[in-house]
Specification:
Layout lengths: L3 E12 L2 E13 L4 E5 L6 H8 L7 E6 L2 E2 L5 H11 E5 L10 H12 L8 H14 L15 H13 L5 E5 L7 H16 L3 E6 L2 H4 L4 E6 L2 E7 L1
Parallel strand pairs: 3-8, 3-9, 6-7, 7-8
Antiparallel strand pairs: 1-2, 1-4, 4-5, 9-10
Helix pairs in contact: 3-4, 3-5, 4-5, 5-6
C-alpha cells in the first residue's frame, strides 16, 4: 500500500478576478521508505503540493490518501491530529521558539500529542526528546537556546523536533536554504542516514543539486509533474 496517494488532485486559488490552477490533475504514489525530492521553480506548484501532502491545505478536487486514509473530507481538528501523528515538518527558517532550549523545542510536539495520548508522561517526553537530540548529534547541546547554536545545529534541533513523534513522513521545505554549503551537505547526509533507518523523507526544493541527493525526483512545472525519475 502506498503511503501517499494523490488521485486526480486539483487546486485552484482565486486572486481578484483571476482563477489560478496551482495543481492540475496530479496522480502520484509515494511508498513508505522512499527518499523523494519535489523540485521546481517558483510558481511551479511544488509548495502547494507540499501543503496538501502535509495536510496544511485541502485540494479543490480529487482525493488524497495518507497511510491508507482518505483525508479529503476531514475537518480542521481531525487534520491537525492526523498531521501531528503522521508528519514531521522541517522548514528553511527553523521555526524554533527563541526563549526555549533545544530540549524544550523538541518536547513541544509531544506535549501537544499528550492531549490525545495519556501514556505520554513528562518523564517519557523528556527521555524521548533527549534520545532524539542524541540521534541528530546534539546530545551535548540540549540546554542551549537557539541563539547559542549555529545554523546547522538549529536545523538539527528542528529535525529532532520533526522526528520525536515517530512520524511516517519527514517533510522538509527548502531545509538547506539558510545554510552554507558545508552545513547543507551535513544536513543532507543526516536525511540520508534517517532514510536508511526507514524514515520516509520528502524534500521540497528549487535547488537541483539538493534534489539530486534524493533517490527519486518529481519535477514540477505549471502545476503538473513534468518528470518522475529514479536516480
Amino acid at each position: 500500500m502506498s503511503l501517499i496517494e494523490f488521485n486526480h488532485i486539483h487546486k485552484n486559488f482565486t486572486m481578484g478576478d483571476e482563477n489560478i490552477l496551482a495543481l492540475n490533475d496530479i496522480s502520484i504514489k509515494i511508498n513508505e521508505g522512499e527518499f523523494t525530492s519535489i523540485v521546481g521553480a517558483s510558481g511551479s506548484g511544488k509548495s502547494t503540493m507540499m501543503n496538501i501532502i502535509g495536510l496544511l491545505d485541502l485540494p479543490t478536487k480529487g482525493h488524497y490518501k495518507l497511510d491508507g486514509v482518505d483525508t479529503t473530507s476531514m475537518d480542521d481538528d481531525a487534520l491537525s491530529h492526523y498531521r501531528n501523528q503522521k508528519i514531521g515538518f522541517v522548514f528553511q527558517s527553523f521555526h524554533l521558539l527563541p526563549k526555549a532550549s533545544a530540549l524544550k523545542n523538541v518536547e513541544m510536539p509531544m506535549q501537544y500529542a499528550s492531549a490525545y495520548n495519556k501514556e505520554l508522561t513528562d518523564e517519557i517526553i523528556r527521555a524521548r526528546a533527549l534520545e532524539t537530540l542524541e540521534k541528530v548529534g546534539l546530545g551535548s547541546r540540549v540546554h542551549h537556546l537557539p541563539n547559542e547554536l549555529s545554523g546547522g545545529q538549529r536545523q538539527r534541533v528542528a529535525i529532532a523536533r520533526a522526528l520525536v513523534n515517530n512520524p511516517k513522513i519527514l517533510l522538509a521545505d527548502e531545509p538547506t536554504g539558510a545554510l552554507d554549503s558545508k552545513t547543507s551537505e551535513e544536513i543532507l547526509t543526516l536525511f540520508k542516514e534517517l532514510n536508511s533507518q526507514g524514515v520516509t523523507v520528502i524534500i521540497v526544493t528549487h535547488d537541483n543539486n539538493v534534489a539530486k541527493k534524493c533517490k527519486r525526483v518529481l519535477r514540477m512545472s505549471d502545476g503538473k509533474i513534468s518528470e518522475d525519475s529514479i536516480l
